[in-house]
Each structure stands twice: as structure tokens, then as C-alpha cells.
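Exercise 7b. C-alpha cells:
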């Protein structure tokens, strides 16, 4: 199993959840308001007067076979709106209960 953490501009919320549903990734935890700044490009998301936007995050645990297609679809979403920002990170899940 793999853990996928997705950080994204709040404007992507519905699209990201829709992609999870489309890929049969049923369980996830959603973090509605996060602050951050991308490592490559894009504006900071600090919720301040200077940088008013915020980002959100989702973490989901999925079967290995679902990872590649989900990442492909998330990449396409990011490329459609590059200025908003979206990143996904994958980790191995060693154990669960």
C-alpha cells in the first residue's frame, strides 16, 4: 500500500476529490486550511493581506495499483491550472491496523 499526500490550492478541492472517487480511493483525510509555499514556482499561500490565498491537503492510503493513474490525472489537473499549484508525494505504508 502507498500513502499519497496531495497539497493544492483551495480552488482544486472539488477536482481533487473527484479524481480520488474516479480512481476508487475511498478513504482520505482532508486538511482544509494550510499555509505554504511551493518549492519550484508559484505564489505563497499564507492567508495574509499580501498573499491572501490558502492551500489545502489530502492524505489517502491506496493499493499500489491505483498510484500511477491517480498521479497521472493529478499531473494533468496541475498542468491545466499551473498558477494555482498542486503537488503529490507518495510514501510506502509499512504497517496499518
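Sequence design result:
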Amino acid at each position: 500500500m502507498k500513502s499519497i499526500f496531495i497539497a493544492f490550492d483551495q480552488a482544486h478541492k472539488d477536482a481533487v476529490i473527484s479524481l480520488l472517487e474516479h480512481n476508487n480511493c475511498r478513504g482520505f483525510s482532508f486538511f482544509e486550511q494550510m499555509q505554504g509555499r511551493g518549492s519550484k514556482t508559484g505564489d505563497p499561500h499564507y492567508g495574509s493581506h499580501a498573499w491572501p490565498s490558502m492551500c489545502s491537503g489530502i492524505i489517502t492510503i491506496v493499493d499500489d495499483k491505483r498510484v500511477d493513474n491517480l498521479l497521472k490525472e493529478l499531473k494533468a489537473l496541475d498542468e491545466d491550472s499551473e498558477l494555482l499549484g498542486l503537488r503529490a508525494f507518495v510514501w510506502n505504508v509499512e504497517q496499518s491496523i
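Instructor comment: The two ends are 13 Å apart (CA to CA). DSSP finds two helices and four strands in the chain.
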